[in-house]
């Protein structure tokens, strides 16, 4: 009788024991971006700090393709054991409306949020040949010259393109969208004056603004940013306007709660580490220490808000 009672108890105890031993081997943190960009740089810095906290190695794996869907799908379909994680971004909220054939089609159900990593606003800047010095003048010029302001982006459906589309939706101005394959080619065209403006990530815009090659009009966050303190939020002129690129850590849906708790705690240590926070701030990246609930709520909000912009502005993937 005692043996019959003991065996089931041991079987029940084994999963808990396995979870308590987590992590016992290398963890893979997957990103959908190429090496060297801001998302990759932050991913590696955060992974290294989390690895110290967890007492293991975290390898950042770049799986580029299909608007980050290759990376997103790989993790969504991975075994939910805490050893395959996703450094997911705003594209998780954009792809379902922009490219509904891409997977995961329901990221809120197929991925489990661990916590926030960073957020980064964009800077709307223009060529200095334009007689425009602030957002009010930009909107007035656009209304007086409909279809004459060519605004670049890093590609159709990218967050900086949607930042432009959101401005159009909120103000009714007519802007010409000029997509490029990445931010760098568009920035070269802006410097040369072949396009008139662009929304660029802070770390991309700062150097050209500071050297006077372009003129910053506004930032897409609702507050000023430390690296460009003289540039006001667009929301000062267009109330309620906000458009941010963000990154968060996800695991496959179904990952056991004890593992999720360990990951969330390690991530919080990383995103509040003073040295890491300071190093990222110099690049215009604001580390965020929000937990799983914050990331879940953000994804839910943006799945709705970006879908409204995409459908309202009739944006179609290239």
Characterise this structure.
The protein is an alpha/beta fold and 318 residues long. The protein is built from twelve helices and ten strands. Strands 1, 2, 3, 4, 5, 6, 7, 8, 9 and 10 form a ten-stranded mixed beta sheet that branches. The longest helix is centred in the C-terminal third of the chain and has 21 residues. The protein is globular. 42% of the residues are buried. The N terminus is likely disordered.
Characteristic terms for this protein:
alpha/beta; about 325 residues; about 20% strand; disordered N terminus; 12 helices; ten-stranded mixed beta sheet; about 45% helix
Mean pLDDT: 93
Q: C-alpha Rg, in Å?
A: 22 Å
- Tell me the fraction of residues in β-strands, as a range: 15-25%
Report the principal-axis shape.
globular
Along the chain, the helix and strand elements come as: HEHEHEHHEHEHEHEHEEHHEH
Number of helices: 12
Q: What oligomeric arrangement do these chains adopt?
A: single chain
Structural class: alpha/beta
Describe the biggest sheet? 10 strands, mixed
Regions with little confidence, pLDDT below 50 for 5+ residues: 1-18
Distance between the termini: 68 Å
Estimate the helix proportion, in percent: 40-55%
Q: How many strands?
A: 10
What would you say about this model in short?
With 318 residues, the chain is of the alpha/beta class. The protein has twelve helices and ten strands.
């Amino acid at each position: 009788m005692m043996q019959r009672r003991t065996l089931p108890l041991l079987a029940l105890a084994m999963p808990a024991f396995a979870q308590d031993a987590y992590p016992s081997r290398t963890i893979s943190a997957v990103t959908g971006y190429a090496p060297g960009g801001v998302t990759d740089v932050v991913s590696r810095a955060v992974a290294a700090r989390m690895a110290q906290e967890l007492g293991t190695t975290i390898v950042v794996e770049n799986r580029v393709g299909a608007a980050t869907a290759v990376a997103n799908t790989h993790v969504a379909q991975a075994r939910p054991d805490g050893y395959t994680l996703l450094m997911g971004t705003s594209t998780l909220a954009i792809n379902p409306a922009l490219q509904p054939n891409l997977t995961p089609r329901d990221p809120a159900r197929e991925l489990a949020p661990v916590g926030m990593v960073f957020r980064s606003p964009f800077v709307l800047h223009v060529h200095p040949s334009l007689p425009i010095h602030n957002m009010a003048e930009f909107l007035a010029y656009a209304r007086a010259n409909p279809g004459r302001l060519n605004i670049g982006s890093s590609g159709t459906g990218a967050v900086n393109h949607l930042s432009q589309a959101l401005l159009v939706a909120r103000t009714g101005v007519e802007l010409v969208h000029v997509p490029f394959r990445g931010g760098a080619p568009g920035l070269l065209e802006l410097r040369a004056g072949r396009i008139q403006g662009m929304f660029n990530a802070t770390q991309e815009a700062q150097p050209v603004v500071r050297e006077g090659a372009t003129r910053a009009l506004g930032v897409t966050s609702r507050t000023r940013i430390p690296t460009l303190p003289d540039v006001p939020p667009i929301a000062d002129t267009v109330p309620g306007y906000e458009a941010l690129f963000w990154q968060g850590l996800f695991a496959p849906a179904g990952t056991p709660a004890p593992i999720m708790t360990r990951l969330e705690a390690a991530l919080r240590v990383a995103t509040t580490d003073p040295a890491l926070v300071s190093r990222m701030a110099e690049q215009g990246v604001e580390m965020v220490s929000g937990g799983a609930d914050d990331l879940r709520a953000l994804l839910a909000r943006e799945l709705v808000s970006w879908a409204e912009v995409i459908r309202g502005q009739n944006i179609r993937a290239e």
